[in-house]
Write a sequence for this structure.
């Protein structure tokens, strides 16, 4: 696993936007082949790598999403990236929500496509049949740890399907790509650049205590998910309810038998 020169398709747009990238500017490590960008970023963070380092790969052999699910990462077909963050205590729980907003905003800025977000970490393309039929275009994985000196870090990984690829049978009907949706070529470097620029801005808002702005942006992108039925595993059984909102801590607010319940983690199944 060797760090290689950043290809021009990425280096050119990143250079042009350097003033909007904040701590990510000039911090990109590129690999043509890697096990998982999150694993490499976590190893760097544990050894004291500073905030803003970015790991990007052309392909992953062991990419993963939430709940240890595999994230299919064919060479040249997507964006597979992880960044090292060192958020303050209040900001840390909201990093995944801020990332969802940033990835959706970055995709829109780079391509014109307007994705939606689905709690807790999916970026989707809408479907007239509702959120249960929406197709996934990007996923986010946030993992936390502590470096040798005791400092807390968050590695934030995101994968974006840019070009059509052969997805496994179990996800083929639920996945899509930017080029498939737009019907034209998409510049991966521009998408990565705009996502990093948006993430820099949204993360800065969190760090400076402007949590309301991030949550408000997430709500706007998630409007089509409100009022939808969901179910999840809890207390040894299955609970069901209607999604109403997300609160200031990032928890999903679900109405169950007339009462509001907060879902903090786990898998939510949309109906």
């Amino acid at each position: 696993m060797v760090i290689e020169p950043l290809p021009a398709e990425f280096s050119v747009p990143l250079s042009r936007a350097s003033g909007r990238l904040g701590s990510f500017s000039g911090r990109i490590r590129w690999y043509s082949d890697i096990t998982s960008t999150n694993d490499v970023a976590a190893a760097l963070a544990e050894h004291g790598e500073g905030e803003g380092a970015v790991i990007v790969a052309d392909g992953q052999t062991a990419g993963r999403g939430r709940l240890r699910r595999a994230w299919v990462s064919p060479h040249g077909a997507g964006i597979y990236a992880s960044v090292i963050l060192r958020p303050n205590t209040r900001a840390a729980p909201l990093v995944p929500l801020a990332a969802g907003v940033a990835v959706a905003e970055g995709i829109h800025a780079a391509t014109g496509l307007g994705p939606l977000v689905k709690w807790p970490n999916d970026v989707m393309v809408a479907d007239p049949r509702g959120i249960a039929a929406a197709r996934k275009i990007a996923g986010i994985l946030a993992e936390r740890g502590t470096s040798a000196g005791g400092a807390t870090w968050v590695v934030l990984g995101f994968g974006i399907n840019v070009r059509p690829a052969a997805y496994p049978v179990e996800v083929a009907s639920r996945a899509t790509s930017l080029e498939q949706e737009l019907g034209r070529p998409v510049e991966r470097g521009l998408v990565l650049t705009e996502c990093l620029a948006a993430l820099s801005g949204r993360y800065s808002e969190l760090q400076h205590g402007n949590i309301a702005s991030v949550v408000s942006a997430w709500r706007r992108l998630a409007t089509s998910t409100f009022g939808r039925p969901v179910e999840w595993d809890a207390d040894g059984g299955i609970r069901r309810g209607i999604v109403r909102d997300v609160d200031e801590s990032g928890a999903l607010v679900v109405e169950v038998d007339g009462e509001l319940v907060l879902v903090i983690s786990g898998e939510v199944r949309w109906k």
User: Anything to note?
Assistant: The two ends are 42 Å apart (CA to CA). Residues 34 and 60 are 5 Å apart (CA to CA). The chain is about 30% helix and 25% strand.
